[in-house]
Amino acid sequence: MPPARTALAVVPAYNEAATIEAVIASLRRHAPVFDVLVIDDGSTDDTAGLSRAAGARVVRAPFNLGIGGAVQTGFVFAHEGGYDLMVQVDGDGQHDPEELGKLCDAMRPGIDMVCGSRFLTKGEYLAPISRRAGIHIFAWLLSRFVGQPVTDPTSGFRLYNRHAIRLFAADYPHDYPEVEAVLMLHHHRLQMCEVPVRMFQRGG
After folding, report:
1. In this structure, what is the dihedral angle of CA atoms 185, 187, 191, 197, given to the nearest 10 degrees?
2. Rounded Cα gap, residues 150 and 153, in angstroms
3. Phi then psi for 115, rounded to 5 degrees?
4. What is the CA radius of gyration of the chain?
5. Domain total for the chain?
6. Per the domain annotation, does 202 fall within a domain?
7. Percent helix, strand and coil across the chain, each rounded to 5?
8. Domain interval for residue 89
9. Tell me: the pLDDT tens digits for 139-150?
10. CATH at 177
């Protein structure tokens, strides 16, 4: 794990009252050196109040920005706050903070983004077949564009260093953010790697 006070966990959340407390509690238990910031993306439920009660800082969007806008808000916060590392952990319970240590271990000099992949361990995660087909098409295309294997292009469980934080604070894609972010990283000559992680089905 990184030194204290240099790492930020950004949790984009839209109407995640059913799961947000458990996500924050798991982050505080398994990744205590990470500050926790919830981006409440225009929720109509009590996502923001529950997040504060669980000990997280909260930024509330005035309306629903979408996942790209919410995550970019986290990048801006991390960049302006001088954080060395930022991890995205979705508010729906899919990402397991206990696996965050694997991403931190893989963040070494020369690597700017570490992506947690559901598909590097065979049979670990079974998405619906239609979604799985789309993911594999994106993976095939991205792998050829960037010249390295990309197995889980839609995973949002990603750890970024300062170079990547600065890049995405200035500009982060909104249409297919996870997929396009890999292309942006490659275009700006930053490097990524993947590590196998456990993920869960969406909660709530």
Report:
1. 40
2. 6
3. -110, 130
4. 16
5. 1
6. no
7. 40, 20, 40
8. 7-196
9. 888 888 888 989
10. 3.90.550.10
